[in-house]
Design a protein that fits this description.
Layout lengths: L1 E6 L10 H10 L2 E8 L5 H12 L3 E5 L11 H11 L4 E10 L7 H18 L3 E6 L2 H10 L7 E3 L6 H9 L2 E5 L9 H9 L5 E3 L21 H11 L4 H16 L4
Parallel strand pairs: 1-2, 2-3, 3-4, 4-5, 5-6, 6-7, 7-8
Helix pairs in contact: 3-4, 8-9
Length: about 260
């Protein structure tokens, strides 16, 4: 059974609620869900925690997306720290740097990224990293803030092999989304084919980045099966083997129960 290691299920994306979405994913062979608690405020974090509290197949994260770095205050960071310590929360994230849209200035993104890495180290939980067009700065900050003490996941991996090698050395696993199925994603496909079997995860980032053949439609956790099958083909291994490895890797990295 597959695990979707990164999905957004809060009402801002799925107005009908998560239950039917989860049922469709179960039918597609997806058994667990890591629900990401980030947004313009902490409502998605509370939603993810509440969902995880009542469903043993759901696990939550909390963080502050780099798009929203300008919203950071001492009070907000203090509340994130309290939430991050909750037993339902398995990681701090997604956090990181995004220089594509620049919704927040670079210096503010970097400062908040540092703050959140420190929170992850304080609560001793792994980090879920968002990085876009910020590869060098992302790796530099992870090194400077000793993120390898807790390790984590490079979410929606979209870099090249040199980045992957440095991330792996820092104890970060590589999570592949539907982007890997895109025709133009040759560098990502090369990494997915090469990466160590015990260091790869699969995700949807739903409702974004639906894999082929659903590209352009709303992505759902059920679609992670298509991404996993594609990666299994790249690696010339059975789908069941890829599913087993990625699920085991997710459980290990996020310390999920068997």
């Amino acid at each position: 059974m597959l695990i979707d290691s990164h999905c957004h299920l809060d009402p801002g994306y799925f107005k009908e609620g998560p239950e039917a979405v989860i049922e469709r994913a179960n039918a597609a062979g997806v058994s667990r869900f890591v629900v990401i608690g980030v947004g313009e405020d902490l409502a998605p974090a509370h939603f993810a925690i509440d969902l995880a509290a009542r469903r043993p197949d759901v696990h939550a994260t909390v963080g502050l997306h780099p798009h929203d770095a300008t919203r950071s205050t001492d009070e907000l960071l203090a509340e994130i720290r309290v939430l991050a310590a909750r037993p339902e929360v398995v990681a701090v994230g997604e956090i990181g740097l995004d220089y594509h849209y620049m919704h927040s200035p670079r210096d503010q993104q970097q400062r908040v990224f540092r703050d959140l890495i420190r929170i992850a180290r304080e609560v001793q939980k792994p980090i879920v990293v968002h990085t876009r067009e910020a590869a060098d700065d992302t790796l530099a900050l992870l090194e400077e803030e000793r993120a390898s003490e807790v390790g984590g996941i490079i979410h929606c991996f979209s870099e090249d092999r040199p980045f992957a090698e440095r991330a792996l050395a820092l104890d970060f696993d590589l999570s592949f989304s539907g982007i890997v199925t895109f025709r133009s994603a040759t560098a990502i496909q090369e990494v997915a084919a090469w990466a160590p079997a015990d260091r790869i995860l699969v995700e949807t980032d739903s409702p974004y980045l639906a894999p082929i053949p659903f590209r352009g439609k709303r992505c759902e956790p059920a679609h992670v099966a298509h991404t996993a099958r594609f990666i299994a083909g790249l690696r010339n291994e059975p789908f069941e083997t890829l599913a087993e490895h990625t699920a085991a890797n997710t459980r290990r990295r996020l310390r999920l129960p068997d």
